[in-house]
Design goal:
- The chain has 146 residues and is α+β, with helices and mostly antiparallel strands.
- The protein contains three helices and seven strands; from the N terminus they run βααββββββα.
- Strand 5 and strand 6 form a beta hairpin.
- The chain has one domain: 2-Layer Sandwich (Alpha-D-Glucose-1,6-Bisphosphate, Chain A, domain 4).
- Strands 1-7-6-5-4-3-2 form a seven-stranded antiparallel sheet.
- The two termini are 28 Å apart.
- Helices cover 24% and strands 36% of the residues.
Amino acid sequence: MNEIRHRVGIKARIEDIYEATYKPQKLQSWWATSASGSDSVGSLIKLMFPGYLDHEWEIVELAENERVHLRLHSGPDPWLGSELRFEFLATTDQVFVTLTHITVAETPAEAYQYFCTKWPTFLVSLKQYLESGQGMPFPNDIKIQH
C-alpha cells in the first residue's frame, strides 16, 4: 500500500469542513460535477464526472469533526483499492485538513503521480468553496494534463 498525504489550512467552521467531505450535496460543490447517495456509515456516495468514469465510495467511518474515512466501491482501474481519509485539526485561526489517499501497491506509477499532483487542486477547491462559497468541481477544476 502507498499513501499520498496533503494538508491545507481552511478558515471555516470545523462542522462545515467535516460535512463537505462526505455529504453528497457538498461534495458536488468542490470535487465532482454531481453526487448522490446517503451520508451515513455503510452507505454509498456516487460521484459523477461526465466524460470520465464515475466513482462510488462507501462511507467507512464518520468521527464527527475529527475524521472521515471512505473506501472506493467502484470506479476506474487506477482508483481500485483506494481509500481516502480526511482528518481535521482546529487551531485558533484555521482548521487543518489532512487528506490521506491510500492506494494499492500495484497502482501504476503514472496514476500515483497523477494522484500526487491532482489532489492539491481539489483541496484548494475545497478551501475556496468553504471560504468564499465557490469551489471548482469537475469539469471546472484545474487541469494538470490535456
